[in-house]
Amino acid sequence: MGAYLLRRLPSALVVLAIASFGIFALVRMVPGDPVSTLAGPDASPEARAAIRADLGLDQPLVTQYVAWLGQLARGDFGTSYRIGGSVKDLVADGAVNTIVLTVTALLLAMAVALVCSVLAVVLDNRWVNATLSFGNTLAIALPTFVTGLVLILLFAVVFPVLPAGGTPPDGFLARPDLSVQYLLLPAVCLALGAGAALTRFLTESLRTELRQPYVTTARALGISRRRIVLTQALRNALPSAVTVLGIQFGTLLGGAVLVEAIFTWPGLGGLIEEAISGRDYPLVQVLLLLSVMVFVVIQLFTDVIHAWLDPRIRIGGAA
Amino acid sequence: MLVGLLVVSVLSACSSAVDEANGSSGSDSGPSDGGTLRIGSTSDIVPATIFTNSSDATNTLIGAVYDSLIDYPLDSLEPQPRLAKSWQVADDGLSITLQLRDDVKFHTGREFTSKDVEFSVKTWADPTWTVQLQRTAAAITGFDTTDPHAITLKFDHKLSNIFDLLDMLPIIDSETFDQLKTGKAYVGTGPFKFESWTPSSKVVFSKNDDYWGEEPHLDGIEVNIVSDPQAQVSQLRSGQLDLVTGASNRDLETLGKDSKFAVTGFDGAVQQIYVGADLANPDLQDVKLRQAIAFAIDRERIVDEVFRGKGTPINLPWPDYSPAYDAKANETYTYDPAKAKELVSQLGSSPTIPLAYPAGNANYEAVAQIVQANLEAVGIKTELQPAEYSQFIKQLIGGTFGGLWILQHGYAHYTPSTLAVSAYPFNADKNASHFVSKAYKEHADSAWNQVSGTSPEAVEQYKNLNKDLLDNLFLIEMALLHFQTAETKGVQDLNMSKRGELDLRSTYLSD
Amino acid sequence: MSESLIDIAAPEAGSPGSPDDQFDHRRRPGIWTALRRGKGLAGLILIGVVVALGLLAPVLAPHSATEQIPGANLVGPSGAHWFGTDEVNRDIFSRTLYGIRTDLIVVFLAVPIGAAIGILVGLISSWWTFTDVVAQRLFDLVLAFPTLILAIALTAFVGPGLRTVFFVIVAVELPVFGRLTRTSVRTVREMPYVEAAHVVGAGSLWQLRRHVLPNSMEPLLVQLAVSMSVAVFVEGAMSFLGLGVRPPQPSLGSLIRDGVRNMYDAPFFAVGPLALVVALVLGLLLVSQALAEARRA
C-alpha cells in the first residue's frame, strides 16, 4: 500500500508542476491587467510604470514564474494587489467562512434527507409520496438566487427576525447563538438543492432495501415497518448514501459562489470572483492552484482506496 | 423549511442578532455623545492606491484620519483655514507662505510641524501613488521649513490650482509611513484614529480625544464593506448599518419616502457622466456626427429616470459656482432630434459604432440603453459592449475603444484648470479620444499657469477652454450628478468635504 | 449541479442496466409511453407551453423587445402593460416572450451541440486505452471546477455575452456526455457478443455503431433532459451575475436579474420570467425522471 502510494506520488507532483505553469500563463493571457486597474484612469504613464515595477510585472515572464515558485517554496503566498493583505490570510479567512457555510448546509441537507426519506418510506402513503416528490423537484428547479432573495425578503425585511447578510461581528465562536442566526438563511438556501438530491437518493435506497428478503422475514415475524426502517434498512442504505454525500459536498462548494454573493458572506466564492475581476494575479494563482491541488489529492485518495480494495490494480493489471 | 421555522421560533427565545445589531437607543434631541457609526461602503481600501480618490471606504478613511491645510466649502472656491491659519500668495504667483497651527498633534503624540507638510507634498509628487493632482504637487520644487509653524512653498511655474492641492492633500506622518504602505497603520492629525483593517470586511476607527478642533461626538466609526448595493439597503433596513454610501438612486428615492430613514444630498462631490468619442475611428472623425450625437441625447430623461432627478443636464462639466461656468454655453446642444437627423443625413454612410460601458453597474447599463435608443432614433446605429471594469480601464488608458464609451469623471468642481491637467479624459497631451490640438494644449497650459484660479485672466482662459470643448466634442457631457447617502433618522449633522470624504466631526447619533 | 442532477434523475444512470445483445424493438415504446402519461406528460406540457410562447413571441408581444415607451418608467402591471415596464421604459411582457427565445437557443442548441461533441469524443477516445486515460483526466479536471467559476473565468477571457454562455454550456456538457458515453462503451465492450463480433472480424466502427450506441441511447436521453434543465439554470445564474447576454437583448435570466435589482420598487417585475424558468426547468426534470423510470420499469 505504501509502495503504491509512493509510485503514484511523482506523477501527482508532475501534474501539480504543469498545472502551476499553466495557471501562471493562463492568468496573464486574460485581457485587462492589474496595473491599469490599480492605477485608475487618471494616472500618468510614469505612475503606471512605477506600479508595474513595484509589482515586478516588468520582469520577463520566466523570471516572474521562477520568483513565484521560489515564494511558494518558502511558504510565502504573496500579497494581493487589489485587496491588500497577504494572500495566505485572505484565503484562510475565506476558506474558513466557506467551509463553515458548506458544512452547515451539508448537515442541514442530511437532516432533511433523513427525516423526509424515513417519513416517506414508513408512512408509505400515496399523497405523502406525491407531495414529497413534487416538493423535491421544486426544490431543485428553483434557482438559488431566487430562493436566497425570497428568504431575505421574508425573514429579514418583512419580518425582521434574522440578519440580511454578513457574518457575526466577533467571529463564529464568540457567540454561538448569534452565529446560528447569521448562518441560517444562507445555509438553508444552499442546502435546498443538495437536500433534495439526498432525499431522493436515500428514499430510493431505502425502498430498494425494503425489497430485500430479510425484510420480508422480519415483517413475517411481526416486527413493525417503522422499526425495520429505523434499525436495519437505514443502516444498510447509508453507506452508498455517503458516496453521494461526497459528490454533494463538491456541488455545495460550487453553489456557495451565488449564495455568498447574495448574502455578502465573505468566503472563497466571492474572493475568487473579486480576484478574477480585479486581475489580482497572486490571489487568482493561489486559488486556482489550491483547486488543482484539492483535485489531485482527491484523485490520489480514490486511487489508493481502489488499490486497497482491488489487489489487481496494486500489482499492476488493467483497471 | 419546516426545520427552518422550528429553529427560528426556538431562537426568538434567545437573544436576537437583529436586536443586537440595532444597538441601544440613545437619548433624545440635541448633540449627544457616544455610539459607533456603522457605514456600509461598496469598495474596500487598497493600500497601494490610498491617496487616489477611487473608493468610498478610502474616502472615509482619509476624511476621518487626516486633516488638510485648508478646506473649500462645498459650493465655492474660497479657501477656509484648517491646519493653516492664514496664507499669502506671492505677487508673482511663484510661491505661497502659510502660517500653521501650533496646537496640533499626530495620533502618536508627535507635534505637527512644517516638515510634515513638505513630506506630504513630496509623497503626493511621487508617481507611485497615482494621485490625480500629482503634476501639481510635482510642480512644487522649493520648501522653506525653517519655521516649524510656517512654510513657504516655491513653484516651478504659476499654479492657479494651488489651493485645490492644499484642500485635498492629507498631512501624513512620516514616521509610520512604512506601515501605511502595508495597510497596518494610518497616522494623521484628524478627528478619528485608525484602529484596524480586516480586508474585505471592515475598517474600524475610534475617537481622537486629543483632537485640536472640537472633540467629535461619536465614539468610533466602523466601515463595513458590502459590495452589493442592494445588500447595503437590506442591511440598512434590518438595522445592521446606520449609513450607506452605495445605494442605487431608486433605492434612495424609496428610502427618502420612508419616515425611518433620511437621504442627504451633498453638492460638493459632483461627478459628470459623459459619452466619450474615440477619434481614431474614421466614422467619428466628422464633427457633424459628434454634434448629431450631442443633439440626439435626451439628457432630461436620463436625469429624471436613471438618476431620479438628482442631477443637472449639462454641456460643460462645471457646476454653477465654478469660475468657468457659462450658462449660455451650457445650452449649446439641447435635445433636438430633428437637428440631429438633419446632421446625420448630411453624412455619407451610416455605420455601426461600438458603445462601451463598464459592466455590472445598473446606472451605466440604463444610460447606455437610453443613449442607444436616442441615437437609433436619429439614424445612428450602435452596438453595446459592456466590459468588465478592469478591461474597461485598460481600454481607456490605452485608448483602444474604437468607438463611443460612457463613463463618469470628477474634478470639474474644483479650479477649472485642475480638470485639464489631472483628469485623464481631458488631458491635452494624451487622452482616450486621441484628440490632439495645439490650441487646446495652449489654453490648458495657460489656464494652469495663472497666479489665481479665479482672477479675470483665468476666466478668460476658461472661456477658451469651453470653446475648445464645445467645438470639438471629443467628450460629450450629459449630466452633473450629486452624491447622496442614506441613513437612519438617528444620524445627525452629517457633512462632506469637497473631495467626497464624509466629514464626521460634528456627527452624532440620537434616537 | 450536473452531478447532483444525474443522481436524482436516475441513480443508476451511470451504469446502463442490462443491455440486450440486440437492439430491442420491444423496449423502445417504453420511452414514448412514459412521455404520454403522468410525469412525462406533465413535463412535456410545461415545456410545450414555454416553447410555444417563445416561438409565438412576434405574434403575441404588443411591443418589440427593445422599444422604449416614453414616460412609462417602471410602471406596475396594467391594462396596457400586463407585466408592467422596466427601468428603461420597455414592456416586460414583450421582453419576457422574446427572452424565452434566448433560453431556447441555449437549451435546444447549446446542449445538443455539447452533447454531440461529448458523445463523439467519448466514443472515439474510449476505444483505445491511452486516449481514454487522457480524455478521462481532462473530463474530470473540467468537472472538478464548479460551473460558475468556469463561467467567471471564461467571461474574463471572452467578455460577457450569449456566445460566452454558449461556450460555458458546451464546455460543461462535453465532459458529462463524454464520461457517460465512455462508461457505456467500456461496459458494452466487455460483453461477450462484442468479443464474438470482433472474432468474426467486425471493425471497431461497426461495433460502435451497431452495439454500443443503441444501448447507450436511453441514459443519454435522460442525461440530455437533465442537462437542458441545468443549462437554463446556468444561463440564469450567469445573467444574474452579469455575465450573460448583452443588453438590450433579453433573456429570462437577465430579466430576473433586472427584476431583483428593482425588488423593493417593483416586486412584480421578476415574477413572469421566474415562473417561466421554473416551468421550463421543472418540465425538463419531470421528463427526465419519467424517462429514467421507464427504463427501470
- Most extensive interface: A-B, 65 and 62 residues
Helical fraction of chain A equals over 70%
Q: What's the alpha carbon Rg of chain A, rounded to whole Å?
A: 25 Å
Report the order of strands and helices of chain C.
Answer: HHHHHHHHHHHH
Number of helices of chain C: 12
SSE arrangement of chain A, N to C: HHHHHHHHHHHHH
Strand content of chain C: under 5%
Descriptive report:
The complex is a heterotrimer of chains A (319), B (511) and C (297). Chain A has 319 residues and is an all-alpha fold. Chain A is 79% helix and 0% strand. Chain A is flat, with a radius of gyration of 25 Å. The two termini of chain A are 16 Å apart. The model of chain A has no long low-confidence stretch (mean pLDDT 78). Chain B has helices at 2-11, 17-22, 56-65, 114-125, 134-138, 162-168, 177-181, 229-237, 249-257, 287-296, 299-306, 337-346, 362-377, 389-398, 416-422, 438-448, 456-472, and strands at residues 36-41, 70-71, 80-81, 84-89, 95-100, 140-144, 150-155, 192-198, 202-207, 220-225, 243-244, 261-277, 311-313, 352-358, 381-387, 404-409, 475-488, 491-492, 495-496, 502-503, 508-509. Chain B contains 17 helices and 21 strands. Chain B has 511 residues and is α+β, with helices and mostly antiparallel strands. The model of chain B is unreliable at 23-28 (pLDDT under 50). Helix content of chain B is 32%, strand content 23%. The longest helix of chain B is centred in the C-terminal third of the chain and has 17 residues, at 456-472. Chain C has twelve helices and no strands. In chain C, α8 (162-190) runs antiparallel to α10, α10 (204-240) runs parallel beside α11 and α11 crosses α12. Classes of the chains: A mainly alpha (319), B alpha+beta (511), C mainly alpha (297). Chains A and B meet through α2, α3, α5, α7 and α8 of A and α1, α2, α8 and α14 of B.
Topology:
The complex is a heterotrimer of chains A (319), B (511) and C (297).
Chain A: H1 2-29, H2 34-39, H3 45-55, H4 61-73, H5 87-123, H6 126-141, H7 144-158, H8 176-210, H9 213-220, H10 225-262, H11 268-277, H12 281-309, H13 311-315
Helix pairs in contact in A: 1-12, 5-8, 5-10, 6-8, 7-8, 7-10, 8-10, 10-11, 11-12
Chain B: H1 2-11, H2 17-22, E1 36-41, H3 56-65, E2 70-71, E3 80-81, E4 84-89, E5 95-100, H4 114-125, H5 134-138, E6 140-144, E7 150-155, H6 162-168, H7 177-181, E8 192-198, E9 202-207, E10 220-225, H8 229-237, E11 243-244, H9 249-257, E12 261-277, H10 287-296, H11 299-306, E13 311-313, H12 337-346, E14 352-358, H13 362-377, E15 381-387, H14 389-398, E16 404-409, H15 416-422, H16 438-448, H17 456-472, E17 475-488, E18 491-492, E19 495-496, E20 502-503, E21 508-509
Parallel strand pairs in B: 1-10, 1-11, 14-15, 14-16
Antiparallel strand pairs in B: 2-3, 4-5, 5-7, 6-7, 8-9, 9-10, 11-17, 12-16, 12-17, 13-17, 18-21, 19-20
Helix pairs in contact in B: 10-12, 15-16, 16-17
Chain C: H1 2-9, H2 28-36, H3 38-55, H4 57-60, H5 92-127, H6 129-144, H7 147-158, H8 162-190, H9 192-200, H10 204-240, H11 252-261, H12 271-296
Helix pairs in contact in C: 1-10, 2-12, 3-5, 3-12, 5-6, 5-8, 5-10, 6-8, 7-8, 8-10, 10-11, 10-12, 11-12
